[in-house]
Specification:
With 227 residues, the chain is of the alpha/beta class. Helix content is 34%, strand content 19%. The strands form 2 sheets. A 6-stranded parallel beta sheet has the order 3-2-1-7-8-9, sandwiched between helices. It has a 3-stranded antiparallel beta sheet with strand order 5-4-6.
Length: 227
């Protein structure tokens, strides 16, 4: 593996998508424990479904930006030597053309079976109590990793980090685990680590290079120069 890239909320924020945290964040009007935990879901399924339905229906209003397109173009060049891991649940990477994408926190445009978590399917509409798993007929839930749940694809991600020559994290401070451990693991196995973010911590001992600025500005140039 030549390159593993991790993207966070910062890359989508430039397309106008509100982040979950921060000023005017998505959780300012909803408590985390109500819409982003298993306990909140089983306490009030309708409320949780409506929250994610509103996010899903709004996705077409947002477009991929220059950073999304640059990463897709870099993937075209590198092929199987490239892996994109995203903390985001939107579909902007895919709409920009990325194909080798792992959504470690799930995806808004997918639902998951309540009875069998391996039953995951694409979904564009409005989830209701009548929505059923197409594989077994059981009730469904948003395919989102909530607080207290384990992020997806961790084995695949860690295996890629063990063998990659380069690791870059974009639009994320990468200080919250498990994502914070990615740069540590990559660095331990001798990968070159680059941070591309609006704000950078130049004292981070697990990072070799820093590019400070908006993702839409710094990522395209970095991708073009990547060898």
């Amino acid at each position: 593996m030549k390159l593993v890239v991790l993207t966070g909320a910062g890359i989508s924020a430039e397309s106008g998508l509100r982040t979950f945290r921060g000023n005017n964040g998505l959780w300012e009007n909803e408590k985390i424990e109500d819409v982003a935990t298993p306990e909140g879901y089983y306490r009030d399924k309708a409320r949780v479904r409506n929250f994610y339905n509103s996010l899903r229906v709004g996705l077409p209003n947002y477009k991929p930006n220059a950073a999304h397109f640059a990463l897709a173009k870099l993937e075209e060049r590198l092929g199987d030597d490239f892996l994109l891991v995203t903390q985001n649940v939107d579909d902007l990477h895919e709409r920009a053309g990325s194909k080798r994408v792992l959504h470690m926190h799930g995806a808004l445009k997918q639902l998951r079976c309540e009875a069998n978590e391996s039953h995951v399917f694409n979904f564009d509409g409005e989830e209701t109590a009548e929505t059923k798993c197409p594989f077994c007929g059981a009730p469904t839930r948003p395919h989102i990793v909530w607080f207290g749940e384990i992020p997806l694809y961790m084995d695949k991600i860690e295996n890629a980090l063990l063998h990659t020559k380069e690791f870059a994290y974009i639009g994320t401070s990468s200080v919250v685990y498990p994502a914070a451990g990615f740069k540590q693991l990559a660095k331990h196995y001798k990968a070159h680590v680059t941070c591309l973010n609006l704000e950078v911590d130049r004292e981070d001992r697990n990072t070799d290079a820093f590019l400070e600025g908006k993702a839409s500005e710094v990522v395209p140039t970095w991708c073009e120069n990547f060898k």
